[in-house]
Amino acid sequence: MILSGRPVRQQTIGPAPAGFFIGDNMGRFIDLTGQRFGRWLVKNRGGLTKNGHPKWECRCECGNIREVPGSDLRYGQSKSCGCWNKNGPRKAPSRHGMSYTPEYHIWALMLQRCRNSNWPGYRYYGGRGISVCERWLDFENFYADIGPRPSPELSIDRINNNGNYEPNNCRWADAKTQNNNQRRNQCQAM
């Protein structure tokens, strides 16, 4: 195309998204019937939005039927009638219901210290060969063996500082007890 003596480059914007009116397709649209968008299944062409864009009659997996703008379907703005927000994705049932307790947090940090080489303090635990016994890799077993934390001031402590995290080597202890039970505080026999 030439305007005022200079060629004008036409821009190519690629294929139009489904249901869009553009270029030579003006007045025509791509049929979305039968397509699935999230929990919506498109049944029929509906009316028009206030801007003249097509709406589609959709059935949600829960059974509700609504007219949804095609652009909302294509761009993921509408994935369900709202039942998805109410019910949410199905979650695996909780095994113990204690994921947000201090005991669970202490257990998870214990595993990180001993098993995750990227953990900041790994060199003082897993890097020294300190490990968590096989039984305690499952939180329920850890909790059954060590019990609930008696007081918020207590944390898990290894009785033998060079030993592993296992039932016969761990206890709940306060900060003073733990500070006295460090490698640098161990008495050396002469």
General description of the model:
The protein is of the alpha+beta class and 190 residues long. The protein folds into two domains: 29-82, no CATH class; 102-182, no CATH class. It has five helices and eight strands. It has helices at 70-74, 83-87, 102-115, 139-146, 175-180; strands spanning 2-3, 6-7, 36-37, 40-48, 54-60, 65-69, 155-158, 170-173. The protein has a four-stranded antiparallel sheet with strand order 3-4-5-6. The protein has a two-stranded antiparallel ribbon with strand order 1-2. The protein is rod-shaped. The model is unreliable at 7-25 (pLDDT under 50).
Look at the structure and give the mean pLDDT: 82
Number of strands: 8
Secondary-structure-derived class: alpha+beta
Number of domains: 2
Largest sheet: 4 strands, antiparallel
Write the H/E string, N to C: EEEEEEHHHHEEH
The neighbouring-strand order within the major sheet is: 3-4-5-6
Bulk shape: rod-shaped
Unreliable stretches (pLDDT < 50, length at least 5) are 7-25
What fraction strand?
15-25%
* Measured distance between first and last alpha carbons: 98 Å
Gyration radius from CA atoms, angstroms: 32 Å
What proportion of the residues is helical, as a percent range?
10-25%
